[in-house]
Amino acid sequence: MSTTFGLDGLAHRSTAVTRSISAENFTGAKGAGGMATEGTGAQAASRLGRGWKVSPSIDIAAGETAVLADIEGPGTIKHIWCTTAPHAAWRQTLLRLYWEGEEMPAVEVPLGDFFCNGWNRFSQVSSIPVAANPNGGFNCYWPMPFRRKARITLENLAAEQMTLYYQVDYELGEVADEASYFHAQWRRSNPVADGIHTLLAGVEGAGQYVGTYLAWAVNSPGWWGEGELKFFLDGDDEWPTICGTGTEDYFGGAWNFDVPGQGYTEFTTPYLGMNQVLKPDGLYDSQQRFGMYRWHVADPIRFAEDLKVTVQCLGIGRGQGNGLPHRYRVNHDDIASTSLFYLDRPSSGTSLPATPGLLDLEADTHM
Question: What domain of life does the native source organism fall in (predicted)?
Answer without folding.
Answer: Bacteria
